[in-house]
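Let's do one together. I've listed all components of the complex below, 852 residues spread over three lines.
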Amino acid sequence: MLSKFFIIFNASLQNEFTYRLNFILWRFRNVLRLLMTYFLWRGIFVNSPQVFGYDQSQILTYILLTLIVVSIVLSSPSGERIGEEIANGDLSNYLVKPLNYLRYWFIRDVASKILNLSFNILELSLLFLWLRPIVNLPNNLISIFGFVYAISIAVGIYFLLNASLRFFAFWSPENIWSIAFLTFVFLETLSGAVFPLDILPKTVQIGLQFTPFPYLIYYPIAIFLGKIQGLEIIRILIQSTIWLFLIFRFAQFIWKKGLKTYGAYGK
Amino acid sequence: MTDPVIQVKNLKKYYSVHQKEPGLLGSLKSLFKRKYYDVKAVDNVSFEIKEGELVGFIGPNGAGKTTTLKVLSGLLYPTSGQVSVLGFTPWERKSAYQKQFSIVMGQKNQLWWDLPAIESFILNKAIYEVPDAQFQKTLDELVDLLEVRDILKVQVRKLSLGQRMKMELIAALIHSPKILFLDEPTIGLDVVMQKKIREFIQEYNKRFNATIILTSHYMEDVKQLCERVIVIDHGTILFDGKLDEIIKKFASDKTLDVTFDGKVDLEKLKEIGKIESFEYPKATINVKRSKASEAATELLKKFQVADINITEPQIEDIIRQLFTNK
Amino acid sequence: MKNIKIWLKYSINSAQQALSNRAAFALFTVGKTIRILMFLFFLVFLFSGTKNLAGYSKDQIIFFYLSFNLIDTLSQLFFREVYRFRDLLITGNFDLVLTKPVNPLIRVLLGGFDIFDLPIAFFILIAVIYYGSLNLHPSLINWLLYFLLIFNGLIIATAFNIFVLGLGIISTSVDHLVMVYRDLSSMLRIPADLYIEPVRFLLTFAIPLGVMITFPPKALMGILSVQMILISYLLSFISLALGIKFWGYCLKHYQSTGS
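Okay, and this is what the predicted structure of the assembly comes out as:
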């Protein structure tokens, strides 16, 4: 089992390096996004000391953390491939092997995440040295543990959410990218990747807890920054765990249903 | 004699390919530093083809057949050498040239996947500027030849591989090209469909006096269609001529099939040649090509023979030998 | 003439393919609309605290944003096929494009007119005209300049896309590059002047995205000098010429895949 893991892991990493220009552009894009967000907020703060009740260093801290969390949680190349493989029938190549399809892609995702994160940290540190933004990080052990836990759950939620969306390719392969597109439009904003969710009205914030989105980006960061404390942390962590469980069952359910349809097609 | 329509002189096409060391470390290294080496896909190839000829290219995978076709189609710029097709230099990609030839590749397609094939034909009509009347006439002719009238309006994705290949052929021929390059046109098709496509190619060649170059893995295609073949391996031409001359040139042996009518002394029989099989009353004996008739006379003299046959070896076998001996 | 006919045929085919799937059409349109509105809310929200950003009023900032969407949607409408170029390359089907007696750019750059973007483009155009006339009171000349510069922006977009395609031929890396372009242009959802130097300068002139996106609304507001308008035309034609030259160079180095 473990050796299988490492072989898949290794092959995935090598795969990423094959297309040199592609790799370089991927990293370039990453740095660019970082700079874009940074400069966007710098621009906004040019003539207003406070926006949404945040001052400049608070927002920058939030944004920098977002970039790290996004690269851990949302970097998941599997999604598109799963949809494609179901649609074009390549899935069959996996089904005949003694291999768990979802686990296979999860491992490939982890490989990609590790790669992404290690380069990300390197890039971030260089940018940090260059721009020297003022940020304020807490040094509270509970916050850090909560953050680590929240982020692991987030990785799972996102992977399963993404995969189960792509499983709709079993039924309507031609609609799957538009379904995914629509979901990502929501996800982009409602996860907290663009701005901190606590600038939204209270009722909206409460409502959002009943969607999986804020658990992906916003809550891990909020816990880390100590915006959420004490029992509140535990409540959020339990809620996110419940979400992971629900989505896991959902993904399994769809997968099984989908396989039946797939078999019937005889691709 | 007509002038050749295709002239290729000292054509070379080298690719530079990068090498990767195995393992993750190798991958990381290849990000920064890459070793390149040349692959000689086509190495000093020359030939001429006359109007109306149907020539087969034979060779193993990676021999340089397809690369040659791609240079002739103007897809690739050669490393060196001269090529002239219908007086044009292919890689200048002049419209006047492109309107007179077509390339069909068994593994590539130009049809719009989600639309009926007829839509792609109409598109090609516009691209090749085929006049209405001519378009209708050519289409009718091709559709009847290939028997696809009833599926013209079916989404391409719903067609079988064979049907799709027929449609690809129509799309490629709608502008009545004088020159046709067929790269593995029968790949993946079943035997019946292969035969149909083959018959079509033959008919097209005759009816329109089209010049055709064909590559195929199936010897049957080449045997049925091509009088002349060019054998390529490792980017160089091993043979260029009539198909049956391959046998004379490369086959060293002939086979004697004998049926005996009386007792056979095995020891004596061994003196005649190499015994491939012996199962009384039949025997198969291999002899040197030059000694074939001599051996036959000797057999008739020394044994009681009911029947004797001298046969050439199969072309497939010779070709296989040719490539494996390299 | 022939090229326009072929382009029309491509567009009709694309539309036919796209429209066979109405559900995707609806989902896509809804998704796009929401995405556009989300950032709009963000901008409006931003102004709940301040009266102006870098000297621009709320109306102006929103108009900049609408203009960004106009150019962005128009260039996706016309250049959608660029996103599919990688597929065409790795399947080798690009070979069959190259052997045809028609400029391959018609197929790989313009061949996928995206009808999905048409309603959005239309609504944004209405919004631009309505919002612009209502809040910014431009003269007819200003409107004329605005649309001339939008057109100019599309020329820059053309140049950029040709460049991406060319790079695709020599390296097959199209996807990331297209996204880099999209990311960069999305920086200009807000006017280039909001960025600190040298970011502003780079965005405007080095990669003439600022010329493409920020200049038209500035012309409408009457805050763009005549010199700048001339420079922007010069820049777009230089980029287009360079793009086409690069494309020719790349075609020479095309290594058709597959045996």
